[in-house]
Design goal:
Strand order of the largest sheet: 2-1-3-4-6-5-10
Order of helices and strands: HHEHHEHEHHEHEHEEEHEEHEHEHH
Low-confidence stretches: 1-7
Strand content: 15-25%
Number of helices: 14
Distance between the termini: 43 Å
Number of strands: 12
Mean pLDDT: 90
Helix content: 40-55%
C-alpha cells in the first residue's frame, strides 16, 4: 500500500509531514467509507482540510473544544467508524489528556490521533504551543501506540499502519517543511521496528522525528572527519519500542546517544534507558533533548541549534562520549 504515494523526492522537499498526512488521509477516505475526520477548528493548520474538501459529509469541526472532539471520536469508533482526529500536539496530549486516557485508551477504541506542530516545530508561537512533554504523557497510557515519523514518507507509512492496526494511535508530526530522509515510502517501515539509517560499530545514535535527519548528517560528517562509524537508528515507534535494536546497539557499539525534540525526562531517552537498565548491560549513555526546561522561542532550526539537537550539537556530543570509557575491559561475562 505504501507504494501508492506518488510524490517524487523533488516534490516532497516542499511538503511537510502534515501535508503528506492530509493526502494520505484522503487516499484512505477514497478506499474506506468508514474513515471520518475531526478537527478542533484547525483544519487548515493541520492539513486535515484536504479531507474536508473531498468528503464534506464525513468531516466534523467541533470548534475549539478538544475534549469534546475526543469524546465524539470515541463514540464514532464504538459505532464502527474509524475516526482520525487532528489538533496541535500540545492540545491533544495535555488539554485533552483525560479524554485521551479515558474515552479512547481505556475503552481501547479504534481512533487515531494525528498530533501536529510537535516538539518545538512551531517555535515562534511560544511555549504554550511547544509540545515538549507529550511523549511522557502518551507513553504512560495503556493501549496507546505512539509514533513519531522522521519525514513525510514515514508519515504516510505511519498513517497507513494506523488504519490497518486496531486500537488507538498517537502519531506525532511537525508543523514545518521537514528535511527528506527517505527516497520513497518503500524502505521497510514496520510498527515497533527501528530503521537502521546508517551502519556503524563505534557508537549508536537513536533518534526520532526531525532529529533523525540531523543524526544522519552528523554520522556522515563524523565518518569523513573523525573516522568514526556511527550507527543511526530511526526509532519512529516510541511505544512499543524496539528492544532488540536497542540491545543490539548496546552489544555492538557500547555507546548510545538519544536525540529528540522533547524533554529528556519521559521521552525517547528515558524509554531507551529503561531497556538498557533492565537488560543488566552497561554502556556509555547520553540523552540529547530539552534539558527539563521550557524551550526558547524562535524558528525551529534555530531552537534545535540552541538545544544541541541539530547536526552540530550531535557531532559535539559524539566526540564527548567517545572520550568516555564505561570499563577497562570488553568482557561481557562479568556483566551478565
Amino acid at each position: 500500500m505504501a507504494g501508492a504515494l506518488t510524490y517524487t523526492a523533488v516534490d516532497s522537499t516542499s511538503l511537510s509531514t502534515a501535508e503528506i498526512y492530509g493526502q494520505a488521509l484522503v487516499e484512505l477516505g477514497r478506499a474506506h467509507p468508514e474513515v471520518v475526520a475531526l478537527t478542533a477548528d484547525l483544519a487548515k493548520s493541520t492539513k486535515i482540510g484536504d479531507f474536508q474538501k473531498e468528503f464534506p459529509d464525513r468531516f466534523f469541526n467541533v470548534g475549539i473544544a478538544e475534549q469534546d472532539m475526543f469524546g465524539i471520536a470515541a463514540g464514532m469508533a464504538r459505532a464502527g467508524l474509524v475516526p482520525f482526529l487532528s489538533s496541535f500536539s500540545v492540545f491533544t496530549s495535555l488539554r485533552a489528556a483525560d479524554q485521551l486516557h479515558t474515552d479512547l485508551c481505556y475503552q481501547n477504541v479504534n481512533a487515531k490521533v494525528i498530533a501536529t506542530h510537535s516538539g518545538t516545530s512551531f517555535g515562534q508561537a511560544g511555549s504554550t504551543h511547544h509540545a515538549i512533554c507529550d511523549f511522557a504523557v502518551t507513553r504512560g497510557i495503556p493501549n496507546l501506540t505512539v509514533i513519531c515519523p522522521a519525514d513525510g514518507y514515514e508519515t504516510y507509512n505511519a498513517v497507513m499502519a494506523a488504519y490497518n492496526t486496531p486500537g488507538p494511535f498517537y502519531i506525532r508530526i511537525n508543523r514545518g517543511f521537514d528535511r527528506v530522509l527517505y527516497k520513497d515510502a518503500n524502505y521497510g517501515f514496520a510498527l515497533g521496528k527501528a530503521v537502521t539509517v546508517n551502519e556503524g560499530s563505534d557508537l549508536t545514535i537513536i533518534a526520532t522525528g526531525s532529529c533523525v535527519f540531523q543524526a544522519f548528517e552528523a554520522a556522515k560528517f563524523l565518518e569523513v572527519n573523525d573516522g568514526l562509524k556511527v550507527r543511526v537508528l530511526d526509532m519512529h515507534t516510541i511505544k512499543p519500542i524496539d528492544r532488540d535494536a536497542i540491545l543490539k546497539a548496546v552489544m555492538d557499539t557500547r555507546r548510545i546517544i538519544t536525540v529528540e525534540d522533547h524533554n529528556v525526562i519521559g521521552g525517547l531517552g528515558s524509554a531507551v534507558a529503561e531497556v538498557v537498565v533492565e537488560s543488566g548491560k552497561g554502556c556509555a549513555f547520553k540523552k540529547l533533548g530539552i534539558q527539563d526546561q521550557f524551550a526558547p522561542i524562535g524558528l525551529h532550526e534555530d531552537i534545535m541549534n540552541m538545544l544541541g539537537i541539530d547536526s552540530n550539537g550531535i557531532i559535539n556530543a559524539v566526540r564527548d562520549l567517545m572520550k568516555m570509557d564505561f570499563e577497562e575491559d570488553d568482557d561481557w561475562d562479568d556483566e551478565a
